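User: Is it possible to get a 3D structure for a protein together with its bound compound? The compound here is guanosine-5'-diphosphate. I've pasted both below.
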Amino acid sequence: KSGFVSILGRPNVGKSTLMNRVIGEKIAIMSDKPQTTRNKIQSVYTDENFQIVFLDTPGIHKPKNKLGEYMVKAATSTLNDVDLVLFVVDDSKTIGPGDRRIIEDLKKVKTPIILVINKIDNLNKEELIEIVDNYNKEGVFTEIVPVSALKGANVNTLIDVVKKYI
Ligand code: GDP
Ligand code: MG
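Assistant: Yes, that's possible. Here is the predicted structure of the complex:
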């Protein structure tokens, strides 16, 4: 099976680290050049049964002008064309304005959206439960998967979840 997955999230939440983990020792194309196109291939996961293309999706931000508005519309429509969206957040205890803005845009997207809470190595159980509860209230996420990209915790679970949607 093959499919496309859009990854989005604020800078520094750990998207690149996570992709490195997902790809692991599998055959992969990795790209970390500055953004030039609207849908840069970030990496390709390949195993016996799957080829999954991960797309780095920029540009869901507050539009400052007409061009910005166009970019946001383009990014949002891209999200409707893929099999799955991964929205990556970090260990922040509350939903900040950057994440809030993305979530509001995601409410218009029809594709299933999985919330990936990264950096759980910085959180205790109670803190994680509170964060999960906060995001659940938004009613936009099909599933929530906590991981530590840095330590590799729960990344295999995430891969299994992604495969369900391909
Ligand atoms: P990106 O901008 O979303 O691609 O984020 P990066 O992958 O470049 O990561 C940003 C910073 O967060 C780096 O210093 C990473 O080492 C760190 N980081 C990524 N994942 C984790 C994690 O699971 N736990 C912790 N503690 N730090 C992480
Ligand atoms: Mg990156």
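The chain has one domain: 2-164. The radius of gyration is 15 Å.
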